[in-house]
Amino acid sequence: MNLHELTIQKALKLLKEKEISSTDLTRAVLDRIDAVEERVGAYITIAGETAMEQAMLADRAISTGNISPLTGIPLAIKDLICTEGLRTTCASRILENFVPPYDAFVIKKLKKAGAVIVGKANMDEFAMGSSTENSSIKITRNPWDLNRIPGGSSGGSAAAVAADMCLGSLGSDTGGSIRQPASLCGIVGMKPTYGRVSRFGLVAFASSLDQIGPMTKDVTDCAVLMNVISGFDPKDSTSVPEDVSDYTSFLKNGLSEITVGIPKEYNAAEGLNPEVADAVKDAVRVMEDLGAKCIEVSLPHTEYAVAAYYVIAPSEASSNLARYDGVKYGFRDKEKKSLIEMYRSTRSNGFGPEVQRRIILGTYCLSAGYYDAYYRKASRVRTLIMQDFDNAFKKCDVILSPTTPTTAFRIGEKKDDPLAMYLSDIFTLSANLAGIPGMSIPCGFSSAGLPIGLQIMGKHFDEGMLLKVAYNFEQATNFHKQKASI
Amino acid sequence: MEFEPVIGLEIHAQLKTNTKIFCGCSTSFGAPPNTHTCPVCLGMPGVLPVLNKKVVEYTIRMAIATNCKVERRSRWARKNYFYPDLPKGYQISQYELPVAQFGYIDIETDGSRKRIGITRIHMEEDAGKLTHDPDRPFSMVDFNRTGVPLIEIVSEPDIRSPEEAGAYLRQLHSIVRYIGISDGNMEEGSFRCDANISIRPKGAERLGTRSELKNLNSFKHVEKALYYEINRQKEIIIDGGRVVQETRLWNPDKNITTSMRSKEEAHDYRYFPDPDLLPLVVDNEWIDALKKTLPELPDRKKNRFISEFNLPSSDAEIMSSSRELADYFEECIKEFPKPKQVSNWIMGELLGLLNAEGKTIDRSPISSSNLARLLKLIDKGIISGKIAKTVFEDMANTGRHPEEIVEKKGLVQVTDVSAIEEVVSQILADNLKEVEGYRKGKKKLIGFFVGQVMKETKGKANPKIVNEILKDKLAE
User: Fold this and answer.
1) Nearest-neighbour CA in chain B from A300: distance (Å)
2) Residue ranges of chain B assigned to CATH 1.10.10.410
3) What is the tens place of the pLDDT at every residue in B193-246?
4) For an interface test with A, which of B23, B267, B270, B280 has the most A Cβ atoms less than 10 Å from its Cβ?
5) Do A366 and B89 touch (CB under 8 A)?
6) pLDDT in tens, B64-93
């Protein structure tokens, strides 16, 4: 038995039964990281020593019968979720040496649940990107084909799960940053409802869109992690004081009562790869075989989603990233003598090109004289997109679509074409604009052997329904069991 | 040509909540630099603001006190600009939908009343403080003030003279202190004022080009700066020039304003709704509950002092100028119900004493009850008004009751007619020349005799009795 290949659920069972120890499990994961990190490049920081300490504490807890929901489970954390005493870089030069003096809400929850944090995963700088190529630290490769990108921005978190370099991970999703890399790496990823998981300690990219979520080897693990990280946090005014159900209770067979909506507009999406389209069609057929009723729904404002998103997200980012000015923490160009020169040089050298592009874009959209034409108009489009979903969900329980229009592309392929890169988020970013939950599960492979993902979107706070549909699909298929051979 | 100034004021008042607006740090003034800070007010990565409910409560109190409409739904906005004292690179404020609008207060100048409109009141966070090392090329930043709650009160351009501006400012200052939301300390910067001012030919409809004045750190400077600016703009126009729209800085040492930045150099703050905070919802119940907790406001109190106690307007104005003084006044009246005498003594003796010692009424060495007792002694004729002034001084120095001082020092007024007659007879016998003069018609000499008798009795003789006896004896 290769311990690092275990799912969270199986490992928990073995730990509980004292078949294995967390130290063995954590060491196995660290050994696996040692073996493949050079090729995959999933981690920015590997916290081997503290991970082993946490594992020993977990073992002690298990021996005293003091078992929490994640006791002893080695996880990876996207490197823009603050971890007390553990460097949190956002894959940016400007925070290269930033060590937070506090834990994010989700990290507190994970620690309380007994989890072991093995390291901080690579990502696009400040979560801006769809390939993890925008990391200023390193390149992450897709475990299914090392010449290809893992997706992004949570590319490190996805690759680490796909390559068994952790049992599960946390990512963050602003426009698809959990679902898209999950799809491209053949794993499960969920973006919860906006407000379901506290953003406290998540370094902000676009505050009204950002949400932390789990990335796992299967649907059950997704539910297990959701149980731990969800819930109200008084430190996040946008987190919702609503009860959290036990998400594992939705992992039951039977889709007969369920109506699945297929948005007609998504078929017409530009650049949708036929292999991806076919895999999704097959997935819909599987759902029907499982008893679900499938209908066509309409999301008429879909074509404006990318434009609205690329106004709102950069606008918020331009403000969120203003604090990295070299004054208080992080990188500062000490050579420059005047304040303005210091600001300019610090930010020009501290941020990578994509981050600078978005800051400039956002600054422009918020400027006097342009605000109405861009930010205000985009906000109105956002309202229309929310209404689209509200209307569609009157007729169905979940909406199915491809997660991404294509499978993983080659490293460097779209690096100089930001618009093509932005279009790869076309199916995912509507969920962020509408604040609804969305997840991606494996639903097939291309002829080149690359994973294809199925996106399931649902009503606000209806994560249980997504998990139920995903679980039934997973039970009926074998895609999630396939491993990248690395 | 006669000109008319058009003035609007923007006032920032620091709210005296215990903790900051979006975190739990202390707001107290004067702590060592950067000791009242946390990741939230330092703008560390990933932190989020959580609104302090007390800030909203204080702001609503102010809104009610200034007759504003409290908006049931308002919104937080980010004001973006780079400066080292602003850790997030933006200030959380309110922009498109402020918490209160459409208010007014009434002011009085030269006995005539006028209503000044209040455009809006909104909440925001204060910035930190920079200090520059004079010897080295370093600047230091203190984030203790970062996140201290502020309200900004923006007036309509209804003000037409520096005096009106002063009256408006003093009235607002008095209100914030009355309702207990700000200490209003201008020196410590907890009450700040910017002014927008333009001039136009009298009778004209169109507004002139305005300048914005900053650094007006006392009531006196506000009026002085406005006077200076009115004259400066007048001269430009008379010389055929054009006033340019700009921000100007008041220099209190030179008594002039100087250009700080032009309209072209003005910041584009790129306001947008703060996605980290939900829209602020205020319900009617809360507003009604806060209405009930509001004290009587200065304007209303002044009018009551006039109608209930028959005070002259000027006395009522002073007695109601602060809640503490008004309370002192009313406590005195409870024990000694002759309001005009009380206000005379407060305005004459007590405020003089407090001014000289740089104290406020709540630190008065003489309690309201002791002052009332002193006035009773005068009223009952136990001491004269003149003696009372020395007793007052003694009270201020020792804090003792007036009766105790009067008794110990033997200051009780002599009202014994035979004792006074005896002294009068002696004085008249010693000053025969003056007696003769008086009797020949030099009636003014009465003052001389009174003075001699008082001197002899060390001021304790009842002056009324002395006068009567003197007149009787001199008429003999």
Assistant:
1) 26
2) 417-474
3) 999 999 999 989 999 999 999 988 888 999 999 999 999 999 999 999 999 999
4) B270
5) no
6) 999 999 999 999 999 999 999 999 999 999
What is the edge-to-edge ordering of all strands in the sheet holding B211-216?
A: B69-70, B100-109, B112-125, B149-155, B3-14, B191-201, B211-216, B246-251, B256-262
Residue B193: predicted pLDDT: 94
> Which domains occur in chain A, in start order?
3-256 (3.90.1300.10)
Q: What distance in Å separates residue B82's CA from the closest CA in chain A?
A: 7
Q: What is the mean pLDDT of chain A?
A: 96
Nearest 5°: phi and psi at A298? -125, 135
Is the confidence at residue B54, as pLDDT, over 90? yes
Give the HSE-up count for residue A198: Cα atoms under 13 Å, Cβ half-sphere: 26
Burial class of A338 by CB neighbour count within 10 A (0 to 12, 13 to 18, 19+): exposed
A283 vs B323, residue with greater confidence: A283
Whether residue B357 is predicted with pLDDT greater than 90 in this model: the reply is no
95-154 in A: which are within 8 Å (CB) of B?
95, 98, 100-102, 104
pLDDT at residue number A415: 80
Q: Do A80 and B46 touch (CB under 8 A)?
A: yes
Cis amide leading into A153 (omega within 30): yes
Q: Looking at the partner chain, which of A88, A206, A368 has a beta carbon nearest the beta carbon of B268?
A: A368
With 0-12 / 13-18 / 19 or more C-beta atoms within 10 angstroms meaning exposed / middle / buried, residue A57 is: middle
- Binning pLDDT at 50, 70 and 90, where does residue B450 land? confident
Determine the Cα–Cα distance for residues A429 and A302; give it in Å rounded to an integer.
10
Interface of B with A (CB under 8 A): 39, 42-51, 78, 80, 82, 84, 87-90, 137, 141, 268, 270-272, 275-278
Q: pLDDT tier at A462 (50, 70, 90 boundaries)?
A: very high
* Cβ within 8 Å of residue B307, ≥6 positions away: none
Q: Cβ atoms within 10 A of the Cβ of B372, count? A: 20
What Rg do the C-alpha atoms of chain A give, in angstroms?
21
**Is the distance from CB of A327 to CB of A343 less than 8 angstroms?**
no
3-class DSSP assignment, residue B273: strand
Residue A373 token pair: 């034409």
User: Where would I find the H helices in B70-189?
Assistant: 162-178
Coil, strand or helix: which one is B246? strand
Cβ–Cβ below 8 Å for B270 and A204: no
Out of A80, A104, A328, the one facing B42 most closely (by C-beta) is: A328
- Pairing mode, if any, of strands A74-78 and A168-173? parallel
Confidence grade of residue B445 (pLDDT, cut at 50, 70, 90):
confident
Which is the catalytic residue, given A21, A92, A153, A183?
A: A153
Q: Mean of the pLDDT values across residues B161-171?
A: 94
> Does the domain formed by B417-474 have CATH 1.10.10.410?
yes
A314 band by pLDDT with thresholds 50, 70 and 90: very high
B-chain residues within 8 Å CB-CB of A319? Answer: 78, 80, 89-90, 270, 272
Residue of B nearest to A364 (CA): B270
The catalytic residue among A177, A183, A230, A440 is A177
- pLDDT computed for residue A437 by the predictor: 98
Query: For residue A109, what is the enclosing H or E element?
Result: helix A105-112
Say which of A10, A22, A78, A169 is annotated catalytic: A78
Tens digits of residue pLDDT in A254-279: 899 999 999 998 877 778 899 999 99
pLDDT value at position A427? Answer: 94
Residues facing residue B93 across a β-bridge? B77
- Testing the interface with A: which of B34, B48, B51 to mutate, by most A Cβ within 10 A? B48
Label residue B405 by pLDDT band (50, 70, 90): confident
